[in-house]
Fold:
Amino acid sequence: MSATVSVVVPCLNEENRIRILLDAIFKQTYLGDLVDVTIADGGSKDRTRQVVSAFQSEHPGFRLQIIENPSGSIPAALNNAIRSSLGDIILRLDAHSAPYPDYIERSVAALEAGKGANVGGVWEIQPGADSWIARSIAQAAAHRLGVGDALYRHAKEPAQVDTVPFGCYRRVLIDQIGAYDETLLANEDYEFNARIRLSGKIIWLDPAIRSIYFARANLSGLSRQYFRYGFWKLKMLRRYPGTLRWRQALPPVFVAGVLTGLILSGVHWAFFVLWLTGLLAYMVVLIMAGLKLAIQRKDYILIAGLPLAITVMHFSWGGGFLYSLFLGIWKS
Structure:
């Protein structure tokens, strides 16, 4: 393999994770002189830049640069990093990720074998902190009740898919379909991949291409993350309604049902019984899932932690989606 690869990374306040990412990239099996890394920093207030500078001093031959991302948004960070890099191939990573040593090698091999226009792999989700709630969030972010049939979280076989999180593609693809959409502050990967598929090209996922993803460390961070996902998902769906999947439709439908049932409960006691029965059934399903996982993992805090984390994910995602819908109706 002789193709040059530019790794692009959006970053904001990642002093605890950025060194893990840089060490993982430095240890890649793909020839080091063919790889360059551009970190687009959105104005970090912690020690992120000092950590990057220390890494640069320790590895003076490693082609690493950090650039400004004034807007602070992820799509703008990606576009700025791509414009500042020179590689034939672009590979997007996150500052709270750690690719396996052969991530670049396997990604480039799949791309050069013609498997897809954008190729990627599977996340192995790990806790973002050493706490019971961080462990619970990590398990929820990988659980089917939390994320549905998203194959990049649990695929066992290579497959053509809708999206991959840390994609690898040729730079010329940007010229063909356009850059990341900077009007979307979330779901930029999914929207980018939607345009790839609409152009007749393939998104390819190979579970042999693996990376570690560090989930949010607490419920407030998880809630903000999933509210943002839901809010911006609606804006993307208005452009590409055919990309809606059942796993994305269920949270807003569920939250709308809970709110409607709560309102109707004040009209007649029968509605309250139905509302309460539905909520209890929901919690029983989540608790049973938590019990099963707790036994498998021998981590019994998951009996409570998994239902709690999944509930936050569902209500935050669904609430963000409905709030975006409300704003759209109100402003129209």
